[in-house]
Amino acid sequence: ASRVFAFSCLTFVVKDRRTRRERKLLDDVGARCDRATTTAVMGPSGSGKTTLISLLTLRAPRGRATGRVTLGGLALTQRRFRRLCFVVNQDDELWPTLTPREQLRHATQLFAAAGADIEPGRAEEIIDRLGLASCADTFVGHALVPGGLSGGQKRRLSIGVALVKQPVAAFLDEPTSGLDAAASLHTMAFVRSLAKDEHLIVVATIHQPSTKVFLDFDNLLLLSEGRVAYSGAAVSAAAAFEGLGHVLPPLTNP
After folding, report:
1. What is the pLDDT of residues 175-211, one digit of tens each?
2. Hey, which of 8, 90, 146, 244 has its CA 20 to 30 A from 52?
3. Beta strand segments in the chain, E
4. What does the pLDDT look like over 207-232, one tens digit per residue?
5. Is there a contact between 158 and 110 (Cβ–Cβ < 8 Å)?
6. Least confident segment among 11-15, 57-61, 90-94
């Protein structure tokens, strides 16, 4: 239980500024995420994915939230979140004029200064683990500076910065956004192996993944209009909906 992330009865209500009526963006949402697992949060636009992740990462917009979020059986406070969790945003927040090696070494120094207990040589270990050895001394770069890292390399480096902190739980916002099919598959396969090897809890929002990427997730939390449509093993989702009369057509991405 010390490495379980769980939330229950999460409800979030906002008031429409124009009509002054209350609108429920989340309604009694809950799930359990065990150590060494990856959980995909999916759903169509307006289903509540962004609102849910905002609540789970303690960055909720203005509104009224109720429910419970715990890590290791204890309420997730701002202090515990800063110490044990990390968020990888959709836009890679990297310094374009630094190399991956410099980026990770600076992250090591900053987290250590903040009190994190980081093993010596952690930055070099992560470079090897991420498969970034070949570009470890290449500038990250940006749109106006050609010759920098590829989109997939930047995404892996962003995840690597999170790993420096040695978190218990990592939250990834659309980790495959902007990547081609091959880079998306490679990135998510890497994330899953990382969760297993580092005993990490990974929760990721993801939009229209390929079949292979979808099946790289252990669990699926599917939202619809702010409510839970499915929560359980990702590989069992198609059978669950088939039991409700929604049969998956042959050769169709689940």
Report:
1. 888 788 888 888 888 889 889 988 999 999 998 899 9
2. 244
3. 5-15, 22-33, 37-42, 64-71, 74-75, 85-88, 169-173, 201-205, 219-224, 227-233
4. 889 999 999 899 999 999 999 999 99
5. no
6. 90-94
What is the total residue count of the chain? 254
Name residue 74's beta-bridge partners.
71
Exposure of 3 in the CB half-sphere (CA atoms within 13 A): 15
Token pair 């749109």 in the structure block, residue? 143
Q: How far is CA 144 from the centre of its chain?
A: 28
- Give dist(CA 182, CA 185) in Å, integer: 5
Inform me whether the pLDDT recorded for 5 exceeds 60.
yes
Q: How far is CA 141 from CA 42, 107, 144, 154, 175, in A?
A: 31, 18, 8, 9, 19
Residue owning tokens 């609102």: 51
Termini Cα distance of the chain = 32
Edge-first strand order for the sheet with 22-33 is: 22-33, 5-15, 64-71, 74-75
Count of CA atoms in the C-beta half-sphere (13 A) of 145: 11
